[in-house]
Amino acid sequence: MVIVIISVLALFVLPKAVDVSTFTLSSYCDRIQNATTFANRLALAQRRPIVVSFAASGVSIAYAAGGAINLPVTDPSTGAAFSLACPAAFPTCITSGAGTNVTFNANNSGASTTSTGASVQVTVSGSGNAQNFTVEPITGFVRRT
Predict the structure, then answer these.
(1) Cα separation of 85 and 87, whole Å?
(2) Fewer CB atoms near the end CB (10 Å): N or C, the chain?
(3) What is the pairing mode between strands 94-96 and 120-126?
(4) Residue ranges per domain, the chain?
(5) Statement: residue 145 has pLDDT above 70
(6) Could you tell me if 136 and 117 are in contact, meaning their C-beta atoms sit under 8 angstroms apart?
(7) Sign of torsion, CA 35 39 76 79?
(8) What is the mean pLDDT of residues 91-95?
(9) What is the CATH number of domain 19-144?
(10) Which phi-psi region, left, alpha or beta, contains residue 120 (left: φ > 0; alpha: ψ -120 to 50)?
(11) C-alpha neighbours within 13 Å on the C-beta side of residue 64
């Protein structure tokens, strides 16, 4: 009987008592940071410009041609267009860096450019928690800040 009561408590009470929003946001920030690094390496390996677009509701990655974004990059894990939407609990989680683009291998020169001309700091936040990373221009280096 005691085991049944503990099982019921573990199943229904503990998930509501433990706040997992910090872990959810940290995991999402890691995913978009890794996707940005993936886009940089893919652009250099394929010798094609690739644009990472940051919006308040998520991130998308696409090939660029002639200054236009024309073909989405395929996500190797799903086979679909590479797009990472914010977690359901935080539908608009990108608060800083939203509305900016980073182009890797711009003009087939190997260099990276940003739509702001400077470093792009991306902040993923919600419920008082924030995770940050920065994409550097020229090198395309992605680092956690």
Answers:
(1) 6
(2) N
(3) antiparallel
(4) 19-144
(5) yes
(6) no
(7) positive
(8) 88
(9) 3.55.40.10
(10) beta
(11) 24
For the record, the structure tokens of 135 come out as 């994409």
Q: What is the pLDDT of residues 18-58, one digit of tens each?
A: 667 788 888 999 999 999 999 999 999 999 999 999 999 99
Q: Tokens 């706040």 appear where? A: 19
Place of tokens 């073909």: 71
DSSP state of 110: S
**Which amino acid makes up residue 112?**
S
Residues 6 or more apart in contact with residue 38 via CB below 8 angstroms: 61
Residue 60 has pLDDT above 90, yes or no: yes
Element housing 43 (H / E): helix 21-46
